[in-house]
Amino acid sequence: MEHVETPRSTVAEHRARAKMLVAELQQIAATTDNPDERARIRRSADSLIRLATAYRP
Asked: Which of 6, 19, 45, 51 could lock onto 25 through a cystine, CB 3.0 to 4.6 A?
């Protein structure tokens, strides 16, 4: 099997994706009527922010 190099994402691309995912999770949380689901989604967004912060160069 031949090894194919794929282009690596830049730090800026990683940050942009993380910001987009956080914004999407916050939007989903804002539109749900279930308070438990809203809290779970917000915790997921917070976890993503902490993860992205931990990987900063």
From this structure: 45
In the numeric block, the tokens 């690596």 are attached to 8
2-50 confidence digits (pLDDT tens): 766 667 777 778 788 888 988 999 999 999 999 999 999 999 989 888 8
25: left (phi over 0), alpha (psi -120 to 50) or beta: alpha
Q: Where are the domains of the chain?
A: 9-54
Structure-token match 């308070």, residue found: 35
Q: Which of 13, 24, 12 is nearest to 48 (CA)?
A: 24
Question: CA-to-CA distance for 38 and 48, rounded, in angstroms?
Answer: 15
Q: Which amino acid is at 28?
A: I
